Amino acid sequence: MQVYADLGVPEVGIYNGSRLRINRLENGEYLEGEISLAFPSLPILEIVRFLEQAETMDYLELVKAFRNWVKSQIQQDQ
Question: Rounded to the nearest 5°, which phi and psi values hold at 18?
């Protein structure tokens, strides 16, 4: 994580197979947060649902479903 911090990466997501942690860079160190800076309108728990399907669903179908879901979430916020 220190390498990312040294490079100034503002946010790092870490998925451990069951939980997605969003770590935001603040004052040179990463702090866990509930909202993504890159995707503030996307519910983190829903992203985990897609990640869980990666082992059982066709990759291209999963990517397509995820893209469609992201588009629908963005449109709801406008």
Answer: -145, -20
Residue range 30-60, pLDDT digits in tens: 999 888 888 888 888 888 888 888 889 999 9
The answer to whether residues 1 and 23 touch, using CB atoms and an 8 Å cutoff, is: yes
- 49-54 contacts: CB < 8 A, separation 24 or more? 51/15, 51/20, 52/18
**What is the structure's pLDDT at 77?**
67
The rounded distance, in Å, linking the Cα atoms of 55 and 41 is: 26
Separation of alpha carbons 25 and 58, rounded Å: 34
The contacts of residue 39 (CB under 8 Å, 6+ apart) are: 47, 70
Higher pLDDT, 67 or 45: 67
